[in-house]
Amino acid sequence: MKSLGASLSAENARARILRMTGRLVEARAAYRAAAQAHMDEPAVVHSLAGAAEILRDMNRYEEALAEYTELTETYPLEGTIWCGRASVLMDLGRFDEAISTFRISETHGSALIPKNGTATAYKRRGEFTKALKLFNEVAKEFPNDPVALCGRAEIYRDQGNFEAALDDYRRARDRSPFNPTPIIGVVETLKELRRFYDFCAQRRARYRIRTFGCRSEGFSNDRRAPFS
C-alpha cells in the first residue's frame, strides 16, 4: 500500500506541475488518470478535487459545480470538497449558497479555508463589515496566513484606507515572499499613495518574481476564492 500511495502522490504532483505551467487539459487528464488508477485509496479524493478545480481554471463553472456536487455525495465528510463546491458557487455569484456551503465545510476540518472563503463571499457581495470581522478573526487565529491579510487589504483599499492596506500587503509578502498576490498589492497601493520611488523599487522586485517563474498554490491574481 505504501508504494501505491507514493505512486498516487507522484501522479498528483505531476498533474499539479502541469496545472501550474498552464497545461490545463493535460493536467485534468493526469488527475483523472490518477483517480482511475487508484480509486481504492482514500487519498484519491485529492485527484478528483484537482480535476474539478481545473474546470474552474477553464471557466467551466457549471461543469465544475456538477463534479463537486457529486463528490460531496461520495465524500460527505471531506471539508476540502465542500470548500471547492462553495468556491464554484461564489464564481457563479451565488453568494448565499456559497456561504452556507463554506459553513458545512467548517464542520469537517480546519476553519481556515472556510472562514477565508466566507469572508471573500461577503466582500464580493459588498458586505465589508462582515468580511472584515471574519478576516480579522482569521488573522488573529492564524497570524501567518497571507490569504486573510490580502483579503483584508483589498477591503482597506476599496475603502480608501491605503496605509492599512499597504501594511497588510507587506505582512503577507513577508510571510509568503514568492507569491505574486501580495507583491502586486504592494505595488498597486504604493501607486495609489503616489509614493513613486518605493513603487519603482517594488516593481523591480515584482519583475524578479515573474522572471524566475515563482508561483504558490492557493492564490490567484484575479481575486477569486482562496481555495485551490
| Helix-strand string | HHHHHHHHHHHH
CATH topology of the domain at 128-228: Serine Threonine Protein Phosphatase 5, Tetratricopeptide repeat
What general form does the structure show? globular
In helices, the fraction of residues equals over 70%
CATH class of the domain at 128-228: Mainly Alpha
> Mean pLDDT across all residues, rounded?
87
CATH superfamily of the domain at 128-228: Tetratricopeptide repeat domain
The strand count comes to 0
Strand content: under 5%
Alpha-carbon distance between the termini?
27 Å
Gyration radius (Cα, Å) is 18 Å
> What composes the largest sheet?
none
Structural class: mainly alpha
Number of helices: 12
What is the CATH architecture term of the domain at 128-228?
Alpha Horseshoe
Which stretches of 5+ consecutive residues score pLDDT under 50? 1-5, 211-223
Question: What features would you highlight for this structure?
Answer:
228 residues, mainly alpha, Serine Threonine Protein Phosphatase 5, Tetratricopeptide repeat, 0% strand, disordered N terminus
Explain what you see.
- The protein has 228 residues and is mainly α.
- It has a domain at 128-228: Serine Threonine Protein Phosphatase 5, Tetratricopeptide repeat (Alpha Horseshoe), CATH 1.25.40.10.
- Helices cover 74% and strands 0% of the residues.
- It has 12 helices and no strands.
- The chain has helices at 2-20, 24-37, 44-57, 61-74, 79-91, 95-106, 112-124, 128-141, 146-158, 162-175, 180-192, 196-211.
- The chain is globular and about 55 Å long.
- The protein starts with a helix and ends in a 17-residue tail after the last helix.
